[in-house]
Amino acid sequence: MPPRLFERLGMATRVILIDYHAPQHWDYAKRNGFWDLQKHWNGLGPGDTVYFRTTGSQAAFLGRARVTTEQQTLADDVAHAWSSEDSRRGGYRYRIGLTDFEDLPVVRLSWSEVVQGTSAPRRLNPVTLIPESGVPWLERRLGITRDPYAQALNVVREDHREDLDVELMVEDRRVRVPASVVLRRGRGPFRDALLEAYDRRCAVTGASTEGVLEAAHICDYRGDHTDSVSNGVLLRADIHTLFDLKLLTIGADDARVRIAPEVQDSSYRMLDGRPISVPTSATQRPAHAYLAAHNSACSWYHANGGD
Description:
Elements: H1 5-8, E1 13-18, H2 25-32, E2 34-37, E3 49-54, E4 61-67, E5 72-73, E6 94-107, H3 111-118, E7 127-130, H4 135-141, H5 148-159, H6 166-170, H7 179-182, H8 188-197, E8 213-217, E9 232-236, H9 237-244, E10 248-250, E11 257-259, H10 266-269, H11 288-297
Parallel strand pairs: 1-3
Antiparallel strand pairs: 1-7, 2-6, 3-4, 4-6, 5-6, 8-9, 10-11
């Protein structure tokens, strides 16, 4: 797929703010299939992906949708406000149609962190563009996985391009990794708890760039009950991937990093045998039983001197 295909079609990703006094407007948008704006925003139009984020000290991303219409001017007799708590009552002038609504597990993400991870403007407007290069970071941070083949199909359908071989595009020739890697877990309260427990540093590398730190489950996610700190470890994104692929594990008895023999990259091999940084509180440290289960799932572990 040509790398700039989506950009040529005018698709973009934006964040739309919801006043913290009226978070229920997200539910109204889903029910009504539209969103009202106070001003016309250049470039906002059909095909754009919009993320809805509340304002205030407890700001969080609630969901996302796809824009279906141009910004339409509202007639004076249209009821603009959706709730009596809306401080902007009567001030809406434009409306966009929306579809493909998707609720997100509530992720409390400061705007400064978004700016750092995506290079978005420091000033957060009611509608703010996310640079194309920063979209994968935002999706990863919110636990969303891209399927480029599904995206390509949507482009073909919407643009009616007959010069593209659809069957060839949907034939997935990638080497697929386990679903535990494809579905990046560790969102919301679970990640927040691990960030606090591990002093916002990767347990293996010590990396402190918060945008690349992920909450890894030691034993696979099976619902909220598995989101305990003792079943998690804070890892840099690439270390998390190796951990989920069972190419890296942490010894249950000595809390040292072990790297699979097939991983030959020197930057990873140098980590072999290194003790991880563990939380100060014993109750927040990885549980022995969980680490032992992960060790056992690594077929190479005991054969290569593991505990």
